Amino acid sequence: MSLHYLALGDSYTIGEAVPAAGRWPAQLVARLREGGVAVDDPQIVAVTGWTTDELSSAMDAASFDPPYGLVTLLIGVNNQYRGRDAGEYRDDFARLLRRAIGLAGHASRVVVVSIPDWGVTRFAHEQARDGAQIAEALDAYNAIARDEAGRAGARWVDITPISRRHPELVAEDGLHPSAQQYALWTEAILPVAAAAVK
Length: 198
Prior knowledge:
- The chain is an alpha/beta fold.
- The chain is 51% helix and 10% strand.
- The protein is built from 9 helices and 5 strands.
- Strands 2-1-3-4-5 form a 5-stranded parallel β-sheet, with helices on both faces.
- It is globular and about 50 Å long.
- The relative contact order is 0.18.
- The model has no long low-confidence stretch (mean pLDDT 97).
């Protein structure tokens, strides 16, 4: 029997502006298979622009086939982009995490991935956005996600430093990561995901 894998998120999970094989959930599956893990192609519930509440609404309408051997959750950049309150993010994120754990059947099978820093991108510079302000807001959001993951017993991977070290690894839109940056994320996520599916 191969494991079901559910990837929940937004543009970073659906891989805006990169080929389907370049998305990090697809790259993660390929790497897990190389390591001998029998895992299905990812079921992705993610759309560019989604906030936490929009992901939740989409989950209400989606068809799921639990239990999932692996669930990943990466959400929140659009809450930050729209200037939403961090307290609201905590409440929404905690609810999404509980749902993810329910679909996995156990918290140890859920991997929370941090939000990358879009403030370092060419898009942000061209829009004259305040990179320091974006970084501060995203650090606050990521601290919340890390805290909620820890409370729930889920796993945590911090890919934000990778995004800050490699602002040049973006897709043609100048905003979203390239497949090459997603490969670096996959390197960071792989050992945590491998431990989750054991």
